[in-house]
């Protein structure tokens, strides 16, 4: 130890006390991959021509957060909820008028079509961002303790499609650049942990 620099000696002592630790870019990449395995899923968007009834365009998109609108739901006039926001997000969209699509499979022309987004791969932990209009930000949103996503999956899946609410993060303030972000987390009451 006397012949080695002090830095090397200190690093060796820390490694001996705490075991080998990963450092550098490889450790950062590995950490990011662990996060992605928890939160990453994918949605599949398919466009179907109504003239020839063929799927003209289908593509997958990776997500870590689903951003849904929390305006009054078109599916449920009773009020706003996370479930009704998801129903709006995954509803069938009619492409017509100036919004027609070009069918390359059979029609070779602009045609009316249906476009729909479905869940293709479900993440282990689902993050949902609630987008709120400024004029309706003071209205309450029903947040379900459990959320069943099976109706919005693209194909029958053997994955678990039921999620339980574990945390909610929200912002209070005049703009995203000022104010406070607050979090409420479900904890084990028996352990008497303080909530975040």
Mean pLDDT: 76
Major beta sheet summary: 4 strands, antiparallel
Task: Quickly give the structural class.
Answer: alpha+beta
Number of strands: 12
Description:
This protein has 196 residues and is an alpha+beta fold. It contains three helices and twelve strands, in the order ααβββαβββββββββ. The chain has helices at residues 6-18, 25-39, 82-89, and strands at residues 41-49, 55-63, 66-69, 93-95, 101-103, 109-111, 113-121, 128-131, 146-148, 162-164, 167-175, 178-185. It has a four-stranded antiparallel β-sheet, with no helix packed on it. A hairpin with a 2-residue loop joins strand 11 (167-175) and strand 12. The radius of gyration is 24 Å and the shape is globular. The relative contact order is 0.14.
Question: How would you concisely characterize the structure shown here?
Answer:
This protein has 196 residues and is an alpha+beta fold.
Topology:
Layout: H1 6-18, H2 25-39, E1 41-49, E2 55-63, E3 66-69, H3 82-89, E4 93-95, E5 101-103, E6 109-111, E7 113-121, E8 128-131, E9 146-148, E10 162-164, E11 167-175, E12 178-185
Parallel strand pairs: 3-8
Antiparallel strand pairs: 1-2, 1-7, 4-7, 5-6, 9-10, 11-12
Q: What characteristics describe this protein?
A:
196 residues, alpha+beta, 18% helix, 34% strand, globular
